[in-house]
Input
Amino acid sequence: MNPRVFLLVSLLAAAAAGAGCSLLPAPKPDPTRFFLLAAEPGEAAPARGTVALRPVEVPAYLRQPALVVRRGGNEVTFREAARWGEPLEQGVARVLGENLRRLGLVSANRGGDADAAILVVRVLAAEGTASGGVEFRAAWELTRRGAAPVSGEFRAAGLTWDGRDEAGLAAGLSAAVAGLAAELAGQAPATR
Output
């Protein structure tokens, strides 16, 4: 190859490479934000009973990381840039347990406590609404050895968020779990 042609091709290649680098867009920052449910603050009350919380169940559409907003009776949107920092069922169990301890109900250890009330919780809804509401419903059942089960359905009321900032939705759902804990504390039999 002619040295002049080689030099010209080399210069053109270098110029193209340099121009290409400056023409590429700068990388965009990741907009993903992560949220956790939080327990109500406060000191734990004196222990008055023991509960054994079974794994919390959630519907399949809530078993994914994105926060959910209901847009209508049958339409939901997943806020892909707003994600739970842990699986929702684990977050509900963690925060429910912390709130129950604050209310004087201690958790039974894995080995079990014969006097512990068995608590089963099934979350039916845990989402925001497009109109700014917080929808949280859960069915629960408390069973104590030798007694008939007590069950109910909890529905959070009066909780809102602004429809845009998912931190407000996470806070509203945290308050809803605290409300569930308060309802359960009123139903749990004293065992100590």
Q: What stands out?
A: The first strand starts at residue 33 and ends at 35. Helices lie at 3-23, 88-102, 166-187. The two ends are 94 Å apart (CA to CA). The mean pLDDT is 88.
